[in-house]
Amino acid sequence: KAGVTQTPRYLIKTRGQQVTLSCSPISGHRSVSWYQQTPGQGLQFLFEYFSETQRNKGNFPGRFSGRQFSNSRSEMNVSTLELGDSALYLCASSEGLAGSTDTQYFGPGTRLTVL
Amino acid sequence: GIQVEQSPPDLILQEGANSTLRCNFSDSVNNLQWFHQNPWGQLINLFYIPSGTKQNGRLSATTVATERYSLLYISSSQTTDSGVYFCAAKTWDNNAGNMLTFGGGTRLMVKP
To answer: What single string gives the DSSP state of each residue in chain B?
Structure first.
């Protein structure tokens, strides 16, 4: 099976702009989670989508949003970009059985730079 | 929520040496994974190990769930083992969905 794919791999934006990142999970996986990695805060959970519904959300402002499509592909959007949004954004894919043992697989990430 | 702590934060080894990385977690878990982050940022799965012991080549891992810790062993280290190692855990709380909580990582440098 193909792994988790993320596009684009690199992005450069300016403050105030918005950005959309895409994640395609492993075939058959219904859960997609998003994480932000920064040198100061480490790896932090943004949100998880399962069967087109947001199942859990981390402690991020409303400028961060996401959605999931019927084919399980997911997008996340960041509006009104701030310098502090510069980070590596990672998406994880799993079968999505909440409360069960469920290995998560990560994509290569999108590196966002906000100038 | 669950807290995950890793030690040591930094480790420098000579090629061929062995090492042990530790991960402590504050709550019962139904998922514990070890990852190696490559230079390009991708998290490579090493082990899925909520309990017990597993081995994969020069790497092995042990999780003692009742004592809330996990260990990653690297034997005969190679320069290609360099990078950051993360452990991540998920609790039995169904409201948490699939959320993984990550430790701060151990940055390993293997010198030739």
So the answer is: ---EEEE-SEEEEETT--EEEEEEESS-EEEEEEEEE-TTSPEEEEEE-SSEEEEETTEEEEEEGGGTEEEEEE-S--GGG-EEEEEEEEES-GGGTT--EE---EEEEEE-
> Using a CB-CB distance cutoff of 8 angstroms, which residues of chain A are in contact with residue B83?
none
Contacts of A28 (CB under 8 A, 6+ apart): A1, A95
DSSP code at position A59: S
**H or E element at residue A33:** strand A31-38
Name residue B107's amino acid.
Answer: R
pLDDT, one tens digit per residue, over A49-80 is: 999 999 889 999 999 999 999 999 999 999 99
**Looking at beta carbons, which residues of chain B come within 8 Å of A45?**
99-101
Interchain CB distance below 8 Å, A101 and B30? yes
- The 3-state DSSP class for residue A85 equals helix
